[in-house]
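I have been asked to look over a protein record a colleague put together. What it holds is a sequence and that sequence's fold in token form. Please read both lines and tell me whether the tokens look consistent with the sequence. I do not need a full report, just your reasoning and any doubts. This is what I was given:
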Amino acid sequence: MPIDGWAIFWWLIHTVVASGVAILAFLGITSTKIGERFLSHHLDRKLTAFKHEHNKQIEGLKAQLAHLDDRGKRSNEREYNALTEIWEKFVDAYLSTQNCIHAFMEFPDLNKLSDVDLRTYLGTTDLSDTQRESVIQANDKVDVFAKTVRQRQIRKAGGDIFDARMLLRKKGVFVPDNISRLVQASLDVLSSAQVEQHME
């Protein structure tokens, strides 16, 4: 059987073309995989850098929030402590002012006591030694004693009001303005009442 040249030629061309297509397909697939790997690696690096930067920003925001939260807690604690102290001083001022206004004193008739009993009784009071001696030396011991006790009550009220005002000045920065104004106005009323008693 004779060999047909054209058939061999076409068979060769067909084999070369098929091989070329196979080689190109292989190269295309391989290059696509290499390209995908390169692109994937490049995107992974970019994504990692982005995540790192994003995490840094998140950590910074968390630190700021923690700082603000801590400041808020400390501010609330200071406000609470200041309000507690101011309230206690205000109550002291109120009670001592009320005491000097509505002073109801009951004590024995000092004019009828013996010198020893008088000294014993005066020793139980808060009077100073000088004040005790002035009561002992007075003709009307009851009057001098009552005036001395009353003056002490008035001075105590004035001192308590002053202490409350000073505390409000020192700690008022931690107290809401409306409460600070209310306490100040209340202390003004107490002060007026204390001054009236002092004038009598």
Summary: Residues 64 and 70 are 10 Å apart (CA to CA).
